[in-house]
Design a protein that fits this description.
74% helix; 0% strand; 10 helices
């Protein structure tokens, strides 16, 4: 926010010498930028800023950066090309080469005038500024997408940690029911000799069998959970695949329980 506000204050003297029509257009864009900055500032001053508000502020500031292109002088726009090129190069996107070519076109176009920018027509100015705005929008969109994806991965890992503790507790509780650790008893029949502990607690053989089945299903489900955890802990996600990845992960314990039974 401070960087963009400083850029605006730097640009105000630059377009103060424009003619009446150009000054009117620049003032309209400047007023729009000021309104966006005021809205962002009001939210940033809130001490309890939640994630949703942060995304809104980020979108507002990205809009400010795109609007600044239309009141940036030609010489300053040329000076900003290298910084924009570096920002594009840092992105993890298969389309960044296309936008590098757009930047090269804008740089070559401005360099051809050799500091005699008064020869640039209004149509040519709007043409290259529109291209620069598209490049900045691409950078901001990819950056926001990256932040959202990282946030989704963090939320997913927090969910896995929560359910991991619960399943660990369930495993500790059910472990004695399927582990043959009880002392020998004359009341235990040969059929359920493998499940001495539940057989000693319950007289109903069918109930002992169900407890054993549930216990093994728990083990299989935890195996499926661990399999999904190992796969997801280092994988990336995005807004489109997040819900599907969560549903697929929830199916793993079910398939693990089936396999164990």
């Amino acid at each position: 926010y401070m960087d963009l506000e400083g850029d605006l204050r730097t640009l105000i003297p630059e377009y103060s010498g424009l003619n009446q029509e150009e000054r009117k257009n620049a003032d309209e864009i400047g007023n729009h930028i000021i309104n966006l900055l005021n809205a962002a500032k009001g939210m940033l001053e809130n001490q309890k800023l939640n994630k949703r508000q942060m995304l809104i502020v980020s979108s507002l500031l990205q809009e400010v950066e795109e609007c600044l292109v239309w009141i940036t002088p030609h010489a300053l726009a040329l000076a900003q090309m290298d910084a924009l090129s570096l920002r594009v190069a840092e992105l993890d996107s298969p389309n960044k080469d296309i936008y590098q070519k757009i930047l090269k076109y804008c740089r070559d176009f401005l360099e051809d005038f050799d500091d005699e920018y008064t020869r640039i027509t209004r149509e040519e100015t709007e043409n290259y500024r529109a291209r620069l705005e598209e490049v900045i929008r691409f950078i901001n969109t990819e950056s926001l997408k990256s932040r959202i994806n990282i946030g989704l991965q963090i939320e997913r890992l927090r969910t896995l940690k929560f359910w991991g503790w619960i399943l660990l507790f369930v495993l500790i509780i059910t472990f004695p029911f399927f582990s043959n650790t009880f002392s020998n008893s004359t009341n235990v029949t040969a059929w359920n000799k493998l499940f001495e502990f539940p057989a000693a607690l319950f007289n109903n053989k069918l109930l002992v069998a169900y407890i054993a089945a549930i216990s093994f299903a728990v083990v299989g489900g935890i195996g499926g959970f661990l399999s999904g955890l190992l796969q997801m802990r280092g994988s990336k996600t995005n807004l489109g695949a997040y819900e599907m990845s969560i549903l697929l992960f929830q199916l793993r314990p079910i398939f693990g329980a089936f396999a164990a039974l």
